[in-house]
TrEMBL record:
First and last residues shown, out of full length: 403 to 683 of 734
Source organism (scientific name): Klenkia marina
Subcellular location: Cell membrane
Residues forming coiled coils: none
Family statement drawn from the similarity comment of this UniProt entry: Belongs to the cation transport ATPase (P-type) (TC 3.A.3) family. Type IB subfamily.
Protein name: P-type Cu(+) transporter
């Protein structure tokens, strides 16, 4: 490979808002045949809003107090949903892919994944079937409320998925979110949950397992992600593409930063790399 051609490739990348860590990254895109897509903040904008509080409305204040210490899109939605002054939290802990916890006014408060109590189960399934994310608020060990938050699919994601397919990449949506919202978002962007194109309920370590599993089956895997929970998968991937709006750890773990927070930039990156390499050959 001539260094000049590679540098032209990276220069053109900069124009497209694709920042490549080193020219050698272009080489790893040559054989990529599978693309793992994170949902929240990657396929969707990750700008969530709080739609509904199911159960005890007073639980929102406690939940928002704990979420105030978190950067997660769900946390931002919950805090914005309770704009009044919030009580202090002590002993704050964020568990990636699970949720957050802390002590507020003497109560142990946890916000995150948990089974909905029987009386809320129907409302939770309806919200999830509509593509919404539901998180439970536990106070002193008992679920007191379920918060329903909504995200928005990026307007360009559907066309980008089609483009990734046309480049010969098999797309898979891999998310920590529940099956309902995962399938709803998948269908919106042209992915088929019934054809194995969606893996939901995955913990951050699980995202790495999905990548390794695909690699073990001979696939050459790109990962597109933005979150703390995507960092390990981005590092394990043959090609890690981090959204420029993402967290610093994700950007550090990736080989490529997509400055335009747009899935179409992932397709551009693959096309650019292939074109640059064919110029060299
Ligand atoms: P994704 O893979 O879609 O980016 P995450 O791994 O960040 O999702 O989160 C997976 C799940 O963990 C969320 O759907 C939610 O149930 C829970 N969760 C993670 N962080 C938080 C938080 N700060 N507040 C509430 N729930 C959270
Ligand atoms: Mg994400």
């Amino acid at each position: 490979a001539t260094p000049t051609a590679l540098l032209v490739g990276t220069g053109r990348g900069a124009q497209l808002g694709i920042v490549i860590k080193g020219p050698e990254v272009l080489e790893s895109t040559r054989a990529v045949d599978t693309v793992v897509l994170d949902k929240t903040g990657t396929v969707t904008t990750g700008r969530m809003s709080l739609l509904e509080v199911l159960g005890d409305p007073a639980a929102l204040r406690l939940a928002a107090a704990v979420e105030a210490a978190s950067e997660h899109p769900i946390a931002r939605a919950v805090v914005a949903g309770h704009p009044d002054p919030l009580p202090e939290v002590t002993g704050f802990v964020a568990e990636a892919g699970h949720g957050v916890r802390g002590t507020v006014e003497g109560h142990r408060v946890r916000v995150g994944r948990a089974a909905a109590p029987a009386e809320l189960a129907g409302a939770v399934s309806a919200a999830e079937a509509a593509g919404r994310t539901a998180v439970a608020v536990e106070v002193d060990g008992a679920v007191r409320a379920v918060l329903v938050v909504a995200d928005t699919v990026r307007p360009t994601s559907r066309a980008a998925v089609a483009e990734l397919r046309s480049l010969g990449l098999a797309p898979v949506l891999v998310t920590g979110d529940a099956a309902g919202p995962a399938a709803a978002v998948a269908r919106e962007v042209g992915l088929d949950p019934d054809a194995g194109e969606v893996v939901s309920g995955v913990l951050p370590e699980g995202k790495v397992d999905v990548v390794r599993d695909l690699q073990a089956r001979g696939r050459v895997v790109a990962v597109v992600g933005d979150g703390v929970n995507d960092a390990a998968a981005l590092a394990t991937a043959d090609l890690g593409l981090a959204m420029g709006t993402g967290t610093d750890v994700a950007i550090e773990a990736g080989d490529v930063t997509l400055v335009r927070a747009d899935l179409a930039a992932a397709a551009d990156a693959v096309r650019l790399a292939r074109r640059t390499l064919s110029t060299i050959k």
